[in-house]
Amino acid sequence: MCGRFALYSPYPRLSEALRLPLEEAGELTPRYNVAPGTWITVVRHPNDDAPLVMNEAWWGYRPHWAREKAPEPINATVEKVATSNYFRGAFAHHRCLVPADGWYEWLPVEGRKQPHFLCREDREPLWLAGIWSERPDGKPGCAILTEPARGVASEIHDRMPLVLDDKSLEPWLDPHLTDRETIRVVVHHLAAGRFTHWPVSTRVNKPTHDDEGLIESVDA
Fold first, then answer.
1. What is the pLDDT of residues 139-198, one digit of tens each?
2. Residue 148 lies in a domain
3. Which of 217, 52, 35 is nearest to 144 (CA)?
4. Domain encompassing residue 93
5. For the whole model, what pTM was predicted?
6. For this UniProt entry, which residues form the secretion signal (predicted)?
7. Could you tell me how far CA 177 lies from the centroid of its own chain?
8. 220, part of any domain
9. Which pLDDT score, from 0 to 100, does residue 68 have?
């Protein structure tokens, strides 16, 4: 799954890494402990003909047409996102990217859970595949896609966010590309060998803790 991540890269670095025309987003506040149920940075087309923007969406997906007590998932699995009644409309028309510098997972160790920070070996920003929809309040809400864990990520958890490679960013964001089989052909995840991880402080367990020390390695 993906239930906590960090984004501390400044806007210029993200814009350069994206390599796509993007409207200026201004300064981003570094966040080392991004939790569900908060506003997070996303890259999306607000509508089919709107320019690409980097703005905020609520991390919790509930489409405007859903009932009041409908679920508000933070993740959607790659196995079901294209076919589920709840997600397939957003998968076809409202895909987005969630920039991150890394994410956290918890490894069971002798009756406790040890958090690990996972990121690219080269420390470049990650682009997590997401979907979004207008919420009942008219504001965007999103979910991050997950897939079976690969490479070193599988040492920590059986799921991981769907991290896209550089060539997949433009087609993933293309609102005019709606056929799911075509999307599967042209969109690819980042190679499994590009990730690394290390144990970090259990301070990350509390979302109120948010500082650079959370991503520093500790003795497990």
1. 999 999 999 999 999 999 999 999 999 999 999 999 999 999 999 999 999 999 999 999
2. yes
3. 35
4. 5-215
5. 0.96
6. none
7. 20
8. no
9. 85
